[in-house]
Amino acid sequence: MHTCSRAGCTQTAAHSIEWRNPRIHGPERKKVWLACDEHVEYLAEFLRSRSFPVAVFPLDAETSDTSHSTAPADATPDTTNGSK
Ligand SMILES: [Zn+2]
C-alpha cells in the first residue's frame, strides 16, 4: 500500500514519478516519488519547472483493472533470429 508523496495527502498512489537532480545526483542515481491521480501533475510540474529529468509511470496497484492491460511488445529485442 503506497500513499501519495505530496505533503498532507493520504490518498493511494497511482503513479510513480522518477526524477533526479543532475547537480547532485549521478546518472545512475534516481529518486522516486509516488503520486495519486490528483497530484501527479502537480509533482511532475514541480520537478519540470526545475529542469530535472522527470518520467512518470503508472503504478501497478492491487486493484483489479480489466480495461488497462498494455504490454510494450517492441520493448524487448527479438533474439530468436539466429541467422549469421
Ligand atoms: Zn496526492
Automatic annotation (TrEMBL):
Protein name listed in UniProt: Acetone carboxylase
Origin superkingdom: Bacteria
Chain intervals with Low complexity compositional bias: 70-84
Residues covered by region (Disordered): 61-84
Native source organism of the sequence: Lysinibacter cavernae
